[in-house]
């Protein structure tokens, strides 16, 4: 009896392996994509917070924000974007110029219906006139990075 040649057998095994690999890869890609989309939409539907007030105090050269969590997701890792028409200044939770009270971390997030005070020290350097020129403030968070809160109302004292 004659069988198929070893070369043809090897080519057939490689072709079958590649075909199975492509099918599994396609299935895994689709599965991960659907899970990521579900998690992202759940994040957005459960996350809600607002900026209750934004105040620039020229005497202290700082911007004070009061933020309230209205959603069911615990918030942490805040970053603040201050826009003044031409520039965007970004302060994140590790920046020494940004202070958050109470101390909010991933293990101690800002819970539902709780508020936090965020203070940005803008004294010194190119930031010193930011409080007078700021016209929009946006707050983002690491718990749900696709959601943000913003205000165009900045009280100047």
Summarize the structure.
With 157 residues, this protein is an alpha+beta fold. The protein is 29% helix and 31% strand.
Account of the 3D structure:
- With 157 residues, the chain is of the alpha+beta class.
- The chain folds into two domains: 46 residues; 108 residues, Immunoglobulin-like, CATH 2.60.40.
- The protein is 29% helix and 31% strand.
- It has two helices and nine strands.
- The strands form two sheets. A five-stranded mixed beta sheet has the order 5-6-2-1-9, with no helix packed on it. The chain has a four-stranded antiparallel beta sheet with strand order 4-3-7-8, with no helix packed on it.
- A hairpin with a 7-residue loop joins strand 7 and strand 8.
- The longest helix has 41 residues.
- The protein is elongated, with a radius of gyration of 26 Å.
């Amino acid at each position: 009896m004659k069988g198929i040649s070893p070369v043809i057998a090897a080519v057939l095994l490689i072709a079958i392996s590649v075909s199975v690999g492509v099918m599994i890869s396609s299935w895994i890609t689709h599965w991960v994509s659907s899970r990521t989309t579900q998690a992202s939409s759940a994040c957005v539907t459960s996350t809600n917070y607002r900026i209750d007030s934004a105040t620039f105090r020229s005497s202290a050269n700082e911007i004070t924000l009061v933020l309230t969590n209205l959603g069911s997701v615990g918030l942490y890792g805040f970053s603040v974007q201050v826009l003044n028409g031409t520039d965007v200044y970004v302060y994140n939770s590790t920046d020494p110029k940004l202070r958050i009270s109470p101390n909010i971390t991933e293990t101690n997030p800002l819970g539902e219906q709780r508020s936090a005070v965020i203070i940005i020290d803008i004294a010194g350097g190119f930031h010193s006139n930011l409080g007078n020129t700021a016209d929009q403030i946006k707050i983002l968070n690491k718990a749900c990075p696709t959601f943000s809160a913003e205000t165009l109302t900045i009280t100047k004292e």
